[in-house]
Specification:
The complex is a heterotetramer. Chain A is mainly α. Chain A contains five helices and two strands, in the order αααββαα. The radius of gyration of chain B is 19 Å and the shape is elongated. The mean pLDDT of chain B is 92. In chain B, helix 4 packs antiparallel against helix 5 and helix 6 packs antiparallel against helix 7. Chain B has one domain: Four Helix Bundle (Hemerythrin (Met), subunit A) (Up-down Bundle), CATH 1.20.120. Chain B contains seven helices and no strands. By secondary structure, chain B is mostly helical. Helices cover 63% and strands 0% of the residues of chain D. Chain D is mainly α. The interface between C and D is large, with 91 and 95 residues.
């Protein structure tokens, strides 16, 4: 909100002029990306090596979602033709959500932490049991 | 009660038209609403194995089809914006109606999908995954419905060449709804 | 200064009182200074005939000094307070000394029950000693407590220990205390838990080794109902 | 709704549209920002009376447990929980927010920025109507089977998530719906405030020419928008937990109650600053006028407010230190919490420095503003005890916490409101308040306020726990000293509540017989004082142009000691 001081009192309405691009081409790229994001995890499920499969799933599903979202925001919502604070505003909101995640995840996402455990969560979590074969649920460390 | 618009609305000290400015603020406040529920979902998803097992019962093809529908409707919305900018209200209204059609199709597919999920016994109270599945998608669907209703109103005005700048505003909102779905789709359907 | 009104009955109660006192004097000094300056200004610059207010922008470095210097001093005090606060926090909540005894604290609407190991020294065996609203512990012994809730969020508060820890359903939270004096004191619920929240008083009885042994003996030969399992709050 | 039209209109600097509307249209269906401000103000004051009455009932119970309370009767534990829950929720959501943000925001933003209305007048009206609906919904929860919700305003599940635990099957859901509606109202209002402030400033008004109170309300609105989202999502999840048998927060079926606490406090802590900032903004306006002083270091105040706003998003878990979060996280939040004391302390220093070299008149609004600084300092310094994790172990959820946050919220919501109300009363209603009655009201209120909460600091340090209807249940809390202090607090509360009748008497009498107010009775600089008192619909015949900042008092070389923003030279 700092770069519009000089515009005070300016009562015209164009703002920045929006430049319309080739929307159909953007749409075609988006559809290709959609196909990749669906096919990627299917391919991944055929891969034996688990870390590779996970990497393929994550990158095709979420990496491409980010790309798609960026394309929509840029080409359809014309964020680059708004005032500069708008992208900052959007990024700030996302940063706040990341803060929420960072603050809450050590409690909510974990099944155990310093001096506490969630026995119910551990009981249903096969991965955890695989790593802790004694199945102890009561002891904290 | 004044029927005329206040002068305040016509001022533009920030360099941005008031409506466009406001729509971005609406989007900012929506980001944190969806952010709250998706952050919660991601935390639970990463903590529970059962989420992946449950997510395997979702229908990826329906989700993908709905993504296709929303992407296409977004294309229509931006074409409407282009038409409105060139002053062609009738064309803008036509494209807006195509967008509405996309929204309605999305909701119809969604209802069909939900009905079949519920028919197979996966209700909102079946497990935390399904709770999130219905809550997050339901919140999104509510936005789709609201968007369609507003779009019909905007299209009716645009047809008579009134308030053409609104075409862009509803379009920006619609693209945001699209972006939310772009993230919901892999989160709910693909991550198995 | 808390110790003048409330007995000190755990090893770390004195440390928590110390943090309180430290903050009290540091912050109290600042508070009185600020209020003193504030009221002095009110008297000194009250409206008088023929005297006009000065024009001070506060943008000059020489003027800003009056803000930035106290500001830096506040920061120093903050660092000081953070250091001691975290040291005590680490000691009480984060660090867990080796336990000599373990007791399970089960909270429910609206009662406390306590499960202690019987003569075999282990929980979840047939000889566990279960008591309701009364916890017997031995002075000078390091206890671990496992907090379990059967229904809603409660809070296990023992004022004489300066100890408070919420009891969260679905979690087993472990903490510790070491009583340093004998006597009978309050256990309170410090988190609203429904209509009976105000009516779930527990008592902690801190006993000498002999008294505690006698109490153990009087309870261990009694037939005890099956103790609650570790997942009592989770399932 | 965000799609209000923007169109270029030629030669539009004379608001035209003045047909005489009917009473209904003029006062109940109006889109005029001043009328909506009044609606918010009076609804907020009414709610303050309700919240105040609730506090009277439960303080009587605390001082003399088990005895019948006049005007209420016996206080059952269920009623006690309902009273404290709704007292908290009403005072925050239905008093502090509507009065400080919505009422003053609606009234001052267009007037101080020199425009004729908000940018979205109909959205503004809708915002108030939704707010009013939320009031009605909240009240309806008191009369359903099981009574009003009694799980504390923080609504921690599982207590709030299941009727079997809280015994208010209908009240629990209605309560959350009311809160959610209130959020919607303020989201709409906030978008309006922010957009108006960004776009509709008078010609010539640069960012640093905006009066501080407008900045504060705008920053508060942005903070509200940025923080409330997760709680809106959380409220939906909690309502589904209650009604659709989902398990978002139910630990027995894979949920986690701590998640709610994070979602709630992620909003809850910024919310403190959301209501604080408008109040300090009001105080800035009042002290500069009555000390005839330029605000000391305008930019510093602004930057500290923004710093506070940003930092307040990083401190929320200090409400949860002992609530089962990982103890390692508490260390991080201790550091951030003590960090936030720095911008707030700086802001208070700036206000004190503003008084230096002034020519201070002790009028009623000035007394309120000064008492804000004095009492808020108490609230500020006692917060250090609670932000420091080591001492919070003991003090958490005691009356020390309660006294601490009443020493912040009372100055904010009550003292700040009275400062603003008495200051702008001549502008709002065109008449002066009676100064003598105003001072009687001030001294009674401020002394009684300190009389209520200073004893509660002591009982808190001695171990008094919150939300317990009868402390005699606990032997350690049942002694003559603590019982005596509780009685003192209650007596002062009754005095304070009775003192408010002086205020209402003063308002009514002054509205009818008060001295007529001229345009600018306080010789103030800001734009609202250049409009008529009270301003007509459209505010000005010709909208003002701005030439300088809002705090040019006592400029050397001028014959007058003030220099209004709209005067060319």
């Amino acid at each position: 909100m700092s770069d519009h001081a000089e515009n005070a009192g300016n009562e015209t309405h164009g703002g920045h002029e929006t430049h319309h691009g080739d929307y159909v081409r953007v749409w075609k790229v988006l559809l290709v990306l959609l196909v990749v994001s669906v096919v990627g995890p299917i391919v991944a499920s055929a891969i034996e090596h688990r870390p590779t499969a996970l990497a393929v799933t994550l990158s095709t599903a979420f990496g491409i979602a980010v790309v798609k979202a960026y394309m929509v925001v840029k080409n359809f919502m014309h964020i680059q033709f708004t005032q500069r604070f708008v992208p900052y505003l959007v990024v700030t909101m996302l940063v706040f959500m990341f803060l929420l995640f960072a603050g809450a995840a050590p409690d909510v996402m974990k099944s155990e932490g310093r001096n506490w455990v969630k026995p119910g969560w551990i009981a249903e979590n096969a991965d955890y049991r695989a790593h802790h074969p004694d199945g102890s649920a009561g002891g904290a460390h | 009660m004044s029927s005329a618009r206040p002068i305040a609305t016509t001022r533009s000290a920030s360099g941005m038209p008031t409506g466009r400015l406001a729509v971005w603020w609406v989007i900012a406040s929506e980001i944190v609403i969806f952010g709250g529920i998706l952050t919660s979902y991601v935390m639970y998803r990463l903590a529970h194995d059962s989420f992946a097992e449950q997510a395997a019962h979702t229908n990826t093809w329906i989700g993908a089809f709905n993504t296709f529908v929303l992407l296409t409707s977004s294309l229509m919305a931006v074409q409407a914006h282009k038409a409105a900018d060139s002053g062609d209200g009738a064309k803008a209204a036509r494209f807006l109606h195509y967008t509405c059609l996309g929204g309605i199709l999305f909701i119809l597919v969604k209802s069909f999908e939900w009905a079949s999920e519920i028919g197979r016994g996966y209700t909102i109270s079946s497990s935390p995954f399904w709770s999130f599945y219905y809550t997050a998608a339901g919140l999104h669907a509510l936005h789709v419905i609201a968007g369609v209703v507003i779009m019909f109103i905007v299209a009716a005005a645009a047809k008579q060449y009134r308030d053409l700048h609104r075409v862009e505003l509803i379009g920006v909102y619609w693209h945001f709804v699209d972006v939310v779905w772009i993230f919901l789709f892999p989160l709910l359907y693909i991550a198995k | 200064m808390i110790e003048r009104f409330l007995p000190v009955a755990s090893t770390y109660a004195g440390d928590i009182d110390f943090v309180f006192d430290l903050i009290f004097w540091t912050v109290g000094f600042w508070f009185l200074l600020a209020q003193g300056v504030f009221f002095w200004l009110l008297v000194r610059f009250r409206k008088r005939d023929g005297v006009r207010a000065q024009y001070v922008t506060g943008e000059l470095k020489s003027e800003k000094r009056f803000i930035t210097i106290p500001h830096a001093l506040v920061l120093v005090c903050d660092v000081f307070i953070v250091f001691f606060a975290i040291r005590v926090w680490y000691d009480v909540k984060q660090h867990l000394p080796e336990a000599q005894q373990t007791v399970r604290v089960v909270a429910q609407q609206w009662a406390w029950s306590f499960v202690q190991p019987g003569p075999d020294g282990r929980l979840d065996t047939a000889d566990d000693i279960k008591t309701v609203d009364e916890l017997h512990v031995q002075v000078g012994t390091t206890y671990h407590f496992q907090l379990v809730s059967r229904d809603v969020v409660h809070s296990f508060s023992v004022p004489v220990f300066r100890l408070k820890q919420d009891v969260i359903p679905g979690r087993v939270i472990t903490g510790w205390f070491e009583p340093t004096r004998t006597g009978t004191f309050d256990i309170q619920c410090a988190e609203i838990c429904g209509i009976g929240h105000g009516y779930m008083p527990g008592r902690i009885v801190i006993e000498t080794a002999e008294q505690h042994a006698a109490w153990m003996a009087s309870h261990s030969n009694r037939e005890i109902a099956a103790a609650s399992g570790p997942a009592a709050g989770g399932r | 709704m965000a799609t209000r039209p923007v169109e270029i209109r030629e030669g539009h600097d004379t608001p035209g549209h003045h047909e005489e509307p009917s009473f209904f249209v003029k006062y109940l269906w109006s889109t005029d920002h001043k009328v909506i401000a009044m609606q918010y103000l009076f609804t907020g004051m009414f709610m303050a009376l309700v919240g105040g009455f609730f506090s009277y009932v439960f303080r009587m119970q605390l001082a003399w447990p088990g005895e019948s309370v006049p005007l209420w009767g016996l206080v059952t534990p269920a009623a006690y929980n309902m009273l404290i829950t709704n007292h908290g929720a009403i005072m925050i959501f239905w008093v502090a927010m509507p009065v400080l943000i919505a009422a003053f925001g609606n009234y001052l933003i267009p007037l101080m920025l020199g425009c004729d209305d908000m940018v979205f007048p109909k959205l503004n009206r809708l915002s108030y109507q939704i707010f009013l609906l939320s009031v009605v919904v909240l009240f309806s929860s008191f009369f359903v089977t099981g009574g009003g919700f009694g799980g504390a305003w923080t609504m921690y599940p599982p207590l709030s998530g299941e009727a079997a635990y809280n015994n208010t099957p209908a009240g629990q859901t209605i309560f959350i719906v009311a809160v959610a509606l209130e959020f919607v109202a303020f989201l709409l209002g906030g978008i309006n405030f922010v957009t108006t402030a960004m776009n509709s400033r008078a010609p010539g008004m640069k960012l640093y020419d905006i009066p501080m109170v407008v900045w504060m309300i705008v920053i508060a609105s942005i903070m509200f928008m940025a923080s409330v989202g997760p709680l809106v999502a959380g409220a939906v999840m909690l309502i589904f937990d209650q009604t659709l048998n989902t398990a978002f927060f139910d630990p027995t079926r894979g949920g986690d109650p701590i998640l709610w606490q994070h979602l709630f406090w992620f909003f809850g802590h910024p919310e403190v600053y959301v209501v604080l900032l408008p109040a300090v903004g009001i105080v800035a306006e009042v002290i500069t006028v009555f000390a005839r002083k330029k605000l000391f270091a305008y930019k510093t105040v602004l930057y500290t407010a923004i710093a506070t706003g940003v930092l307040s998003f990083t401190v929320w878990a200090h409400h949860q230190f002992i609530a089962g979060i990982d103890p390692r996280m508490a260390n991080i939040f201790t550091v951030t919490t003590l960090l936030i004391s720095i911008p707030i302390a700086e802001m208070m220093f700036v206000y004190i420095a503003t008084l230096y070299g002034g020519s201070i008149t002790f009028s009623t609004p000035m007394l309120w503003a000064l008492s804000f600084i004095a009492t808020f300092l108490v609230g500020g310094v006692t917060g250090i005890f609670l932000g420091a994790s080591g001492s919070d172990i003991y003090l958490h959820d005691t009356y020390f916490v309660l006294a601490h946050f009443h020493y912040t919220f009372y100055p904010i919501a009550i003292i700040g409101t009275f400062a603003g109300f008495t200051f702008w009363f001549p502008k709002m209603f065109g008449r002066h308040l009676n100064e003598t009655l105003g001072k009687i009201h001030f001294w009674l209120t401020i002394i009684a306020f300190n009389g209520i909460f200073l004893p509660l600091f002591v009982t808190g340090v001695l171990g008094d726990n919150r939300r317990i209807p009868n402390h005699q249940v606990y032997p350690e809390l049942d002694n003559p000293l603590m019982n005596g202090l509780r009685e003192v607090a209650t007596v002062f509360l009754v005095v304070m509540l009775l003192a408010q009748f002086v205020f209402f008497y003063n308002v009514v009498v002054s509205l009818v017989r008060g001295k007529k107010a001229e345009k600018n009775p306080w010789k103030s600089n800001t734009l609202e004082w250049t409009a008529d008192s009270p301003p007509p619909h459209g505010n000005w015949k010709e909208l003002p142009t701005v030439y300088r900042g809002p705090y040019e008092y006592g400029v050397p070389g001028r014959s007058e000691d003030y220099w209004p923003q709209n005067v060319p030279n």
